[in-house]
Amino acid sequence: MKQQSNNAPIENTLIVGSGLAGCLLAWRLQERGLPFQIVGSTTLPNAWSVAAGLINPVTGKWMTKSWNIDQLIPEVERTYRAIEQALDIEIYHPMPFRRYCQNMEDVKRCGRRSRNPRYANVLSEHVPVGSGPDAIVDTHGSFEIYQASYVDLPILIAALQDHFQQCGRLRDETFVHAELERTPNGWHYKDSEAQRIIFCEGMGIQNNPWFNYLPISPAKGETLILTSDTLELPKTVYHHTKWLLPYKDRSFRIGATYDDNDLSHEPTESGKAELFKHARAFIKPEHKLEVQKHMAGIRPMTKDVRPFLGTHPNEANLHILNGLGSKGASLAPEMTKQLVSHLFDGEQLDPEVDITRFIEQ
Ligand SMILES: Cc1cc2nc3c(=O)[nH]c(=O)nc-3n(C[C@H](O)[C@H](O)[C@H](O)COP(=O)(O)OP(=O)(O)OC[C@H]3O[C@@H](n4cnc5c(N)ncnc54)[C@H](O)[C@@H]3O)c2cc1C
Question: I need a surface site. Which of 113, 183, 254, 257 has the fewest CB within 10 A?
């Protein structure tokens, strides 16, 4: 075990992972003027560079409100707008969202939701057939989902990584868990000392000897970037069992597949075929489509569909922020805020996200 050269308290926080969770957490510490270092690889596989960053308040076949969405959205707006301003980037894009009904069952199910007063701020009444753009197949009408947006995660994370690198706070390397050693005052990693470690490794959690007991439930996802010479869609997210997100340069993205068997990081021919088939089913055939890019990543889902926040049961200075699943863009602002308030102000974590829920079981 390494000894400190003097007994001065170490204030430093070491964050492991420079993806969405790690970078936003570091941003929070910087806002508070707290010292930190990040060890994160910009080349290891990750979810953030593949994600569309959609924030959709009403999801799934049953059109249910996403967990805590009314509380999450204000923090989403505050956080991403503040980063946009500070780093002079454009990442947060509120956007209309149109969900097309596939059959009469869908019309009835969505209709019931839209009459529920709890859904008044997120769901319109049924919109009759033919009110969307001509190019999109519309057989049973649609519903508008309010308060939707997308966050350009690749631009956000690249800008934050660059920012932290310029401040000398990001070491672009793979963290080796075996090299982390306990000291009387905290932890020693290679040439640095830290009072606490916060692991934000996404799927890297599987290699983490302290936290790999948590019930992660990974799911691979693939997306396609497409172009068409003839198709120009108004800036709306279109949902037709899969979503379609148009970009400024007239390309658009379709996604995503869901596979919890194949957990390789590589895109597959079957994933591409599935997405292309969906694209063809909702864009009228006169528009020829071309695949520009095909990407794959693994979502760090959890068995109980709630994030992992908190402290290791036996190591008081080892913490975690993970399990953002398929909703990192909406969850990360509030989850990073909550973890920082917990660690530095003694605020309680929401029991639904606190990893002590697994000790009790
Ligand atoms: C196909 C697909 C589509 C998605 N679409 C959406 C969407 O529309 N909306 C949405 O909100 N979310 C979406 N997501 C989910 C979103 O990407 C995740 O919720 C989010 O990225 C999780 O953030 P994270 O920081 O926990 O993990 P990641 O973003 O994966 O970041 C973890 C980082 O830690 C690094 N790391 C891990 N281990 C180590 C180590 N030992 N040393 C150094 N670095 C390490 C990795 O390289 C990575 O950069 C999607 C994901 C996929 C795969």
Answer: 183
Spans of the chain, pLDDT less than 70: 1-10, 360-361
Question: Is the pTM for the entire model greater than 0.70?
Answer: yes
Whether the CB-CB separation of 267 and 49 falls below 8 Å is answered with no
Contacts of residue 263, defined as CB under 8 A and 6 or more positions apart, other chains included, come to 218, 220, 298
Residue recorded with tokens 């596939």? 102
Domain parsing of the chain, residue ranges: 13-49+154-216+304-360, 95-148+217-299
Q: Which pLDDT score, from 0 to 100, does residue 4 have?
A: 43
pLDDT at residue 10 in the model: 61
Of the candidates 267, 246, 243, 271, which has an alpha carbon nearest to the alpha carbon of residue 257? 271
At 11 the pLDDT is: 76
Residue 298 CA to residue 304 CA, distance in Å, equals 17
CA of 322 to the centre of ligand 1 (A): 9
Ligand 1 atom at minimal distance to the Cα of residue 219: 53
Tokens 């922020």 correspond to what residue? 321
How many angstroms is it from 88 CA to the middle of ligand 1? 23
pLDDT of residue 2: 40
What architecture is the 95-148+217-299 domain classified under in CATH? 2-Layer Sandwich (3.30)
